[in-house]
Amino acid sequence: MTTYDQWLDAYSAAYDMVPGPLMDGCPNCGRRCLQLVFTGDLDRMVGYAHFWCDNCLQGIGISRTTIPDDAVIQDIRQPSEQREPKIPNYRLVQ
Ligand SMILES: [Zn+2]
Q1: Cβ distance 3 to 93 under 8 Å?
Q2: DSSP secondary-structure letter at 25?
Q3: Are β-strands 46-53 and 58-66 bridged in parallel, bridged antiparallel, or unpaired?
């Protein structure tokens, strides 16, 4: 079982790679399927982060962060069902 700390390390590396591509393997399954999408305020560039693996559908959420330039961002002012890109229903590692 991959720990939250391992996911946090992977998140830190992915954050520094924005806009990507994210070349690191998933801390859980090892596949290069990591995705990092932010939901936030496009003017202030703050929000929260969704970080997950498209292969094993595990990941973490980061509650409040500065959004880096050129990141993939959902506009928090839109209704959640209209926000793009879609985020799968992945399992949060605690
Ligand atoms: Zn994975």
Answers
A1: yes
A2: P
A3: antiparallel
Distance 62 CA to ligand 1 centre (A): 18
Q: How far is the CA of 32 from the centre of ligand 1 (A)?
A: 8
pLDDT tens string 37-93: 999 999 999 999 999 999 999 999 999 999 999 999 999 999 999 999 999 999 999
- Is this structure's pTM higher than 0.90? yes
Q: For residue 47, give the H/E element and its range.
A: strand 46-53
In DSSP terms, 49 is beta-bridged to 38, 62
Query: The tokens 């498209």 sit on which residue?
Result: 54
